[in-house]
Amino acid sequence: MMKKLFKSLVCSVALVTGLVGCSSASNSSGSGNSDSTSKDKQLVVGVTLSQMSDPFFVNVKQGIFDQAKKDNVKVVFADGQANTATQLSQVEDFVSKQVDLIVLNPTEADPLVPAVKEANNAGIPVITFDRWVTGGKTVTHVGASAIEIGAQAGEALFEYLGGKGKIAVIEHIPGASTTIDRTKGLDEALKKYPGIKVVARQSATSRAEAMSVMENILTANPDIDGVYAYNDDNALGASDAIIAAKKQDKIVVTGVGGTAPALDAVKQGKLLATVDILPLEEGKLAIKTAVDVLKGKKITEQHEGRTWVLQQSKVVNGPQWDKKK
């Protein structure tokens, strides 16, 4: 009887030991999977674009998500709604979510500095996109040169006008780095064409507002020859007003962006030209750069005194230009 009891006890201990061994093996296997998952961790990038009501940034967003899918990057996306306070809050949210990197397309250059500094304090790298900020530490800037674009668009218009005439300038968001730099580029181009006179400078942040601004400009300056708009939406708004006033044969308009509506308007002869920044490709470049940074690649390319991943641009013109030539 005692022998049977002892034999039963030994079997029970063996069974328990076997179960514990299996459990330990299972835990060890789980730990291995966890390590593997850690190594293959999906990168998370927070992206805030300044103004999704602008068709340019609609194309940019598509490029961002196309490249993110290709590179297996999770994008936490936010629309800045052309509002600095909104973007500050969005960056705070990215920080609280502990994203791996932030791509910031700031509405304005100065007021978004605190957002960059908050990310700096949290140890989260920041890339500025299309527009830059004036402070804080950013890894690099991704985008085309607004100074060069300002000169390109201006010279296209001035050349078409034969180096003389009156023009109006419709700027974009005051305080945005692109507005500041396109003005610098335009002013440099104006130095080469003393026969061009700027008779009006106003700003607009949408196609509808640009149309209203252009109507006012036409009332005060009915004899202008051309318009340089700082983005395609403003160019299209100006064109709408010019067509409504039946002056499309007398006044030409150039824009900036390379959005689909503007490229179509150029083909139709409603716009003289646009500087195509290739927004889809620019969006892809933002994610490619983010991945490079997070994988430890050092960005060394320099432009205009800062570290910069440069997006190229080109002037696109259509029937109006061909007819003149």
Quick overview of this protein structure:
With 325 residues, this protein is of the alpha/beta class. The protein is 50% helix and 20% strand. The protein has 2 domains: 43-144 and 280-294, Response regulator (Rossmann fold, 3-Layer(aba) Sandwich), CATH 3.40.50.2300; 146-276 and 314-324, Response regulator (Rossmann fold, 3-Layer(aba) Sandwich).
CATH architecture of the largest domain: 3-Layer(aba) Sandwich
The percentage of residues in β strands lies in 15-25%
Low-confidence stretches: 1-38
Number of strands: 13
Largest sheet: 7 strands, mixed
Written as H for each helix and E for each strand, in order along the chain, the element string is: HEHEHEHEEHEHEHEHEHEHEEEH
The overall pLDDT average reads: 89
Give the N-to-C terminal Cα separation: 115 Å
Class derived from helix and strand content: alpha/beta
| Total count of helical runs of at least 4 residues | 11
CATH superfamily of the largest domain: Response regulator
In the sheet with the most strands, the strands line up as: 2-1-3-4-5-12-11
